[in-house]
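step: validate -> pass
step: tokenize input -> pass
step: predict -> running
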Amino acid sequence: MEQIKLSQEVNLSAIVHGMWRLPEWNLSPNEIIRLVEECVELGIDTFDHADIYGDYMVEELFGNALGQAKTLNQKIKVVTKCGIKLRSKNRPDHYIQHYDTSYDHIIWSVENSLKKLQRDNIDVLLIHRPDPLSNPEEIAEAFTKLKKEGKVKEFGVSNYLPHQFDALQAYMDSPLVTNQIEISVAALQEFENGAISLCQEIGIPPMAWSPLAGGNIFKAETHRFLTIKNVLHKIAEQYGVSIDQIMYAWLLKHPANIIPIVGSGKIERVQSAVNALNIDLTTQQWFELWVASKGENVP
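step: predict -> pass
step: emit ->
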């Protein structure tokens, strides 16, 4: 599988496996190891995490499993995030959900993630959400320390608008390498708010969370989703594939080098995403889905 270059130091696989729902998959440590091995066999060597996933438990579940397969753990790449503080039984001092992008919290979060993941370093650390109380100088200071210590190789953001991205980048010694944002045939806002255009302007690949629109298109409970689903079926029939592959192919068609995050514990669903790399939609097919999603023709 093609590797997407984020920097001189970090490449990610063109498809990334997301671990958000790991607890729901009810996998034993050996089954987690096998899932990771199967992903690697398919060419997926990058796994997406966040400190808060699974009520603060996903990194630990993953790390406890991969700790039994240390060679495999060193072979894979890990993206993780910090900055959100959830109300949780595992964080009893949080009486309200809030953000914390302070120097101390970023440093503590990385140390905690490394311990849970049982790794020496994180390939890419993202600030999970824009923080209205953020101090970009303080974030940049934490990033610089973590990079100098070899604990994090590169840094990026998630869900940032262009002006928020620029405000942080202005204080950074090195370029931010990605913005992980919601992109799918049903989520076009990042095309319209300038986030994808900014990624293209500065030459960084965006990562796409929820590339299958959270499964809502499969249910098609609204006129809009039904319209999109019908067009997906039409195009899928032309290629002899499933509609999820067309949804991935729609993202992969874009010249911004969008990296979809696949969030499934079923290897056949992961395989389906990988197969989408072989589908080259025509420009007209791409716009068929754009028009179906927008509900109107382009001007």
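step: describe -> The chain has a mean pLDDT of 97.
step: cleanup -> pass
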